[in-house]
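Input structure tokens:
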């Protein structure tokens, strides 16, 4: 699965095609495909389908990849995949996401999305995947980040510098521009993990 750049997009299986978050993620993935980037999702419905469908809506050198999980409900592979891999366990699936991803976009989602967010954040914190920026897309995450700062960080339960690994953005343009900026810096400088602070907008 060689690619010049690969972005994993996490988000809810329960967001429908008519909802704004679906349309936004579809547009993000479409524009990433125009750069020739791969997009990786959980391969299922909702936000995952939006990302895979958006990617396949234009001719691209990149690929639309789905890492599907066997579940008793919700999860059936969507039809917009160039490559699909199936998993029986979340742990192996998460590690595969981490091994494939150059950047992460966390769209609105529930418990599964939070699992993916915090697993990624933990690995970035301990520098196992230090070149994997985490973009939290949408105002749904504002309260969570405020809570992390005001309640958890305030007690000294993690370092203030760990917040630099999270890049909160609220528009499609911001997300696409940030990913392209980070990609360009990787090409220019060879790494981005030592420069997280420069990407923060607020």
């Amino acid at each position: 699965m060689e690619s010049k750049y690969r972005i994993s997009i996490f988000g809810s299986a329960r967001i429908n095609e008519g909802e704004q978050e679906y349309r936004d993620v579809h547009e993000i993935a479409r524009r990433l495909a125009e750069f020739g980037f791969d997009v990786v999702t959980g391969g299922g419905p909702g936000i995952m389908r939006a990302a895979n469908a958006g990617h396949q809506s234009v001719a691209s050198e990149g690929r639309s990849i789905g890492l599907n999980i066997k579940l008793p409900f919700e999860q059936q592979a969507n039809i917009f995949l160039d490559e699909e891999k199936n998993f029986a366990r979340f742990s192996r699936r998460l590690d595969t996401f981490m091994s494939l991803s150059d950047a992460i976009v966390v769209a609105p989602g529930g418990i599964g999305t939070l699992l993916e967010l915090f697993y990624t954040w933990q690995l970035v914190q301990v520098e196992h995947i230090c070149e994997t920026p985490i973009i939290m897309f949408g105002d749904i995450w504002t309260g969570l980040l405020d809570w992390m700062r005001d309640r958890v960080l305030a007690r000294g339960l993690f370092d203030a510098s760990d917040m630099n690994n999270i890049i909160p953005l609220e528009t499609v343009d911001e997300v696409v521009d940030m990913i392209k900026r980070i990609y360009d810096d990787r090409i220019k400088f060879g790494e981005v993990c030592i420069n997280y602070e420069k990407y923060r907008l607020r």
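The chain has seven helices and seven strands. The first helix runs from residue 20 to 34.
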